[in-house]
Amino acid sequence: MRIDIVSCQPGLVEGFLSQSIVKNAMEAGKVTIEMHDIRTYGIGNYRQIDDYQYGGGAGMVLMAEPLAKLIRDLQARHTYDEIIYMTPDGETFQQKIANRLSLKNGIMIICGHYKGIDQRIRDMFVTMEISIGDYVLSGGEIAAAVVTDAIVRLIPGVINDETSALTDSFQDNLLAPPVYTRPADFEGHKVPEILLSGNDKLIQEWRLEKSIERTQERRPDLLDK
Ligand code: ADE
């Protein structure tokens, strides 16, 4: 899988890429992730990438020309199943979207900044718009890192235990059950007996029951889906 991230502040994502589970995935050849700086395609000696918005109003807008050039250069070299724009007015990111995207061969993620990008780039190139929640970040970079992380950990072999990602919260619209590790007794707080029983069938039943309980308590909306 290949992910190209287009940004005017690539440093914000580079730190994440060089530290996380994503780094291991890249080193293992499971995914190729490249950052692309819009500034490289900026106009004139000052490499201008943004301008005031037509019609007036505060805030700068990322210009169409540098973005279009960069996107077209990438399209000439690679094939993209989706070109995603990170924006608070996009579709809210969910596990099911991560599942779907993890099956793609190539995706491009465009990060906005300031007031966002010129609408014509959205109209001409973007195939999907994603928000990571109802709040406004200063740019799309952290949102792009969130989406990238959620996708990459689903690629088979990225997490040691292949079944691990499948038992996460939100797979099957259920929250994950509580988990425990050693010691069995921590300051008088004991691990539920059943987890020490070695009876796999009973343990699976217990986990499902706890998952349902936790979902009912915290996210009853998920059970309606
Ligand atoms: N850019 C700014 N805020 C954002 C959000 N909530 N989700 C995705 N991209 C964003």
Number of DSSP-assigned strands? 9
CATH topology of the largest domain: Alpha/beta knot
The rounded Rg comes to: 21 Å
**Low-confidence region ranges:** none
Cofactors, ions, other ligands: adenine
CATH superfamily annotation of the largest domain: SPOUT methyltransferase, trefoil knot domain
Q: What share of residues is helical?
A: 25-40%
**Roughly what fraction of the amino acids lie in strands?**
15-25%
**Major sheet: order of its strands?**
2-1-6-5-7
Report mean pLDDT, rounded to a whole number.
95
Q: How many helices in DSSP terms?
A: 8
CATH secondary-structure class of the largest domain: Alpha Beta
Order of SSEs? EHHEEEHEHEHEHEEHH
The tally of structural domains comes to: 2
Largest sheet: 5 strands, parallel
General form: elongated
CATH architecture heading of the largest domain: 3-Layer(aba) Sandwich
Gap between N and C termini, in Å?
A: 30 Å
Structural class: alpha/beta
